Amino acid sequence: MEQSDATAVAQVRAGNPDAYRVLVERHSHSVFRLAFRMTGNEQDAEDLVQETFLRAYRQIGKFDGRASFSTWLYRIAANCSLDLIRARKRRQEHQTPVNEDGEEVGAALPAADPTPDRLAFSGELKQLLAPALQGLSPMERTAFVLRHYEGMCIEEIGRALGVNAGAAKHSVFRAVQKLRRTLEPALSSARS
Question: Where are the alpha helices (DSSP H) in 40-137?
Answer without folding.
Answer: 42-58, 69-94, 116-134
